Amino acid sequence: MKSSVFRVERMDVPGGSEDIVRGGRDLFGLLPAALHGVERIGVLGWGPQGRAQALNLRDSLDGAGITVSVGLRPGSRSVDDARAQGFSEDDGTLGDLLEVAAAADLVLLLIADAALAAQHEEIFAVLKPGATIGLSHGFLLGHLTSIGSAFPAGHPVIAVCPKGMGDSVRRLYQQGATVNGAGINASIAVHADPDGHAWDRALAWSIGLGSPYTFATTLRSEYLSDIAGERAILLGAVHGLVEALYRHFRIEGADPVTAYERSTETITGPIARTISNHGLAAVRAASGDEDLFDRAYSAAYGPARDLVAEVYDEVADGTELRSVILAERRLATRPMTEIGGSPMWSHSAAVHARRDTAPAGIDPLTAGLFVATMTAQVDEFAARGHAWSEIVNESVIEAVDSLLPYMHARDVAYMVDNCSRTARLGTRRWGPRFQAAYEQIALPNLDRPADPELVKGFLENPAHEALTAAARLRPSVDISVG
């Protein structure tokens, strides 16, 4: 990572150090210089990321003479909300997707992955010479590679990838208004840099979104870790785990509300907060039964690691990307079904109602299974050569500082039914696989003694050091989603 405008620091991580840049509202005055001649930013799409990024960038660049405009497809249902947020056809800040793309110096491609795969040629064809192409996900690179294509020559290609959902990107930015920051960490990548200013533009974009901590990656590494992560610990594995545990506790004789608390509530509440504030190892100490935690961890780590590896391989060879594109064609005539019909979710309101009087504690069985799965993803990503910043953000920080708080406020089923289409499809495919692994392999082996080597590997895992370093740069306030 390099910059002629912002200060690049080195952060110590296991085995070395990595480049990072701290954010902060005190840096907003530097954004125009870092954007190097960008006078118009076109945000294509008004999904959760498009909405959040357009609003954050407009606020951060207020008074800088740089226009942020939103481009939508003809007939888009999002136009009314965009207008309500102050974007307007009258002043040129709202318009047709291709017209906005054609007028922009920096074009942020934030429409859905499958739609972008279908429309990228039209968008590329209208770009101004030398306009910068911006992505918040590497999906398009994977698609272009699979069809033997590439980004158009002569255009800088950069990525800024917030490590959280769009609602978190906007909400934490607003919460940070009085504390010089707060926001969602982001990775950045420079895929093409024909004019030599791509790193500065990417950093300006990230800081303008409110990222307190920006780290470098590659576009390929980003989509591999992002798509695999959302199918594993971020969404798919969590959904499979809570469904398996709810059934397990009910079979053991727990009433429905208690079973929900011991499965879902303990993960989205006390386990998430403990990891966010004190790290992974603190969950074991706080579980109240380290022997049961260790037995659960030992039973789950192997099958979870095997599944994470399988997910990763299918992302890497393009299988997951193709499945998303194929599903888009089916969903054009048949909407995706919701998963919230499972009986356990009918007890969500009762659990939420008793939080003040009987808050859930950390269940050691649930904690051991969850931490084993999170650690399995960490270890698999490390074995695949990902940088430590990317590993802990994609496997831990995004979960406990963005997604799990929303699951706590709504429930896991709500999150699965209201995330990106790529994530929803992946969760539906892999969640049941994780559920089966817990039900058929991990839970039946709880009576076996803990594996001392696995427990030792967890306690001495280099991820603890990496997470401690990254935690020093975590958002300065906890996200409020009530």
3D architecture notes:
By secondary structure, the chain is α/β, with parallel strands linked by helices. It has 2 domains: 9-214, NAD(P)-binding Rossmann-like Domain (Rossmann fold), CATH 3.40.50.720; 227-471, N-(1-d-carboxylethyl)-l-norvaline Dehydrogenase, domain 2. Helix content is 55%, strand content 11%. It is built from 21 helices and 10 strands. The chain has helices at 31-35, 48-60, 79-84, 97-103, 113-126, 139-146, 166-175, 198-209, 219-231, 236-251, 256-278, 281-286, 290-316, 319-331, 348-353, 364-383, 388-409, 412-417, 421-442, 452-459, 463-471; strands at 9-13, 16-22, 40-44, 67-72, 94-96, 106-109, 132-135, 157-162, 186-192, 213-216. A 10-stranded mixed β-sheet has the order 1-2-10-9-8-7-6-3-4-5, with helices on both faces. α9 (219-231) crosses α13. The two termini are 37 Å apart.
Q: What is the number of helices?
A: 21
- Name the CATH superfamily classification of the largest domain: N-(1-d-carboxylethyl)-l-norvaline Dehydrogenase, domain 2
Structural class: alpha/beta
User: Which CATH class of the largest domain applies here?
Assistant: Mainly Alpha
Strand content: 5-15%
CATH-derived topology of the largest domain: N-(1-d-carboxylethyl)-l-norvaline Dehydrogenase, domain 2
Termini separation comes to 37 Å
Count of individual domains: 2
The description of the largest β-sheet is:
10 strands, mixed
Q: Tell me which CATH architecture of the largest domain applies here.
A: Orthogonal Bundle
Radius of gyration: 22 Å
Low-confidence stretches: none
Average pLDDT across residues?
Answer: 94
- What kind of oligomer do you see? single chain
Please estimate the helix content. Answer: 55-70%
Cofactor: Mg(2+)
Binding site for Mg(2+) 2: 226
Domain KARI N-terminal Rossmann: 21-221
Keywords: Amino-acid biosynthesis, Branched-chain amino acid biosynthesis, Isomerase, Magnesium, Metal-binding, Oxidoreductase
